[in-house]
Amino acid sequence: VQLQASGGGLVQAGGSLRLSCTSSRRTASNNGMGWFRQAPGKERELVAAINWNGGSTKYSDSVTGRFTISKDRSTGSAYLQMTSLKPEDTAVYYCAAARSSSLVTQRSLYNAWGQGTQVTVSS
Predict the structure, then answer these.
(1) How far is CA 38 from the centre of its chain?
(2) Whole-angstrom Cα distance, residue 6 to residue 1?
(3) Order of strands, edge to edge, in the sheet holding 77-82?
(4) If DSSP states are collapsed to H, E and C, what string results for the chain?
(5) What are 22-81's pLDDT values in tens digits?
């Protein structure tokens, strides 16, 4: 599975961005997917995860109520709608596909990663 993340950029606090993750040849259609982020000097952390058909989702406490993960089963693409952005959301965001079709929260169970897209939120 090859993934391509896009949609990052510079936005003011309180603004919104929508990240997209496209998969090659729809090969992530049957996989659980996730969005991670990594800020400078910090560990890569799970932001949101979704199972193969979008029926189950999970969010980190810091983004619950502000971010929404979704998935297009027909294309294998995943999206992260981010609203009410805060400066602490600034990071490189990565999409990933898991080996399993289930919702996966453990980073080691993701075996395909996109290249990352920078999100910068100014105060």
Answers:
(1) 11
(2) 16
(3) 3-6, 17-23, 77-82, 67-72
(4) CCEEEECCEEEECCCCEEEEEEEHHHCCCCCCEEEEEECCCCCCEEEEEECCCCCCEEECCCCCCCEEEEEECCCCEEEEEECCCCHHHCEEEEEEEECCCCCCCCHHHEEEECCCEEEEEEC
(5) 987 666 788 999 999 999 999 999 999 999 999 999 999 999 999 999 999 888 899 999
